[in-house]
Amino acid sequence: MDTFGVAMKIAILGGTGREGAALALRWAASGEDVIIGSRDETRAVAAADDLNRALGKTTIRGASNRQAAEEADVVVLTVPATAHLAILAEVREALQGKLLIDATVSLDPDAPGRLSPPNHRSAIEEAQAFLGPRTNVVAAFQNISHRLLREPNRRIDCDVLVCGDDPQSRQLAMALVEKTGLRALDAGAAHFARTVEALTPLLLELNRRYKAKEAGIRITGLPEKER
Length: 227
Known about the structure:
- The protein is of the alpha/beta class and 227 residues long.
- The protein has helices at residues 18-29, 41-55, 65-71, 84-91, 123-131, 146-149, 167-179, 193-209, and strands spanning 2-3, 6-7, 10-13, 34-38, 60-64, 74-77, 99-102, 136-139, 159-162, 183-186.
- The chain starts with a strand and ends in an 18-residue tail after the last helix.
């Protein structure tokens, strides 16, 4: 990849899951160098092989979470909230000096459709506090269905809100979001990610009520640019 004039590799931790695999397809289809990470390296390699067959080219590799994080310049985390801190602990040292794009939503496993706890910090605030100042953490992709992402050539009429305390990191994350074919919007500091996360259970409820599967968000009234 050549974003901001620098070649980069993207590692997706949780890349064997539905969201991570769909993002891997999108980035690889656009020509990016993607590494899928998993706690089970064999599973990651098998998933990468499956995705490469779907793409018709070999641009995705599988590795352990730690190896993927070590090799990459930008790391994307797509795991359930219950695994959030455990995965971060596994790769904490490998993330130093890098950008982490965190797609985690703090859904309560015991109360589907609700955030946990009610007065929660966002997942990226939790991640930033745990990883320390040498890692820049940005939130993105919390409100996009994997069903939309998994078809690389499909145009998606949804926006991705990008939050984080470092403006340059937000800009880099936005460039990567737009590589997937989505419009990225700079939503400001990390604390705004609490609001963005809260949209996810609302979208799940709308899907339930309207018997749909792909509800997303679109911000109107802002300047448009051709995608």
